[in-house]
From TrEMBL:
Protein's name according to its UniProt entry: DUF123 domain-containing protein
Highest rank taxon of the organism: Bacteria
Pfam family, any one: DUF123
Source organism of this protein record: Hoeflea poritis
Length: 164
């Protein structure tokens, strides 16, 4: 758990997320993640294209950075939910599990008392994200088209280069 964005997150993505008040969680420290209820952003990078299944329909996701907005309202809170997402070995239970088991890099931003739909709306307003698969992660949401966002940027060097 840390208060600054992990170094593995590219500059443009880090800058875009810097305005969100939260605590960073990495696979190295998920046990220290907050037990608060709220929302989180799961950042993940696919090194190769991934085929995913959404309600019986196959979708191809190209390599790149993705952000998934989720909520954790149960007893273990954000800490328990993000710890599960950051584990590679798990039973595929949610849409996002199809990506977390294939991601080469992952970290999470815990937002206590946050709302996942508000986070999605905020990120879409920046112009740095698009919804790659309609309905992904938002089966029970009446507000959002999807809770998975793909990072897009006209200058790929800013999106895919590590920060200095």
């Amino acid at each position: 758990m840390q208060n600054t964005c992990p170094d593995t997150v590219p500059r443009r993505l880090a800058e875009t997320l810097s305005g969100i008040d939260g605590t960073w969680i990495t696979a190295a420290g998920p046990a220290k993640a907050p037990r608060h209820k709220g929302a989180y952003l799961l950042l993940l990078r696919l090194a190769v294209a991934a085929q995913i299944d959404l309600r019986g329909t196959a979708h191809a996701l190209p390599p790149g950075w993705y952000v998934y907005a989720g909520s954790a309202r149960g007893g273990g809170g954000i800490g328990a939910r993000t710890a599960r997402h950051l584990r590679k070995q798990k039973t595929i239970r949610w849409h996002i599990d199809q990506l977390t088991t294939r991601a080469v890099e992952m970290s999470a931003l815990a937002v206590p008392d946050g709302k996942e739909c508000a986070l999605v709306a905020h990120l879409l307003k920046t112009g740095h994200f698009a919804m790659p698969v309609r309905g992904f992660g938002s089966s029970d949401c009446r507000q959002c088209t999807a809770h998975l966002l793909a990072a897009v940027d006209p200058d790929p060097d800013l999106l895919y280069s590590p920060r200095a």
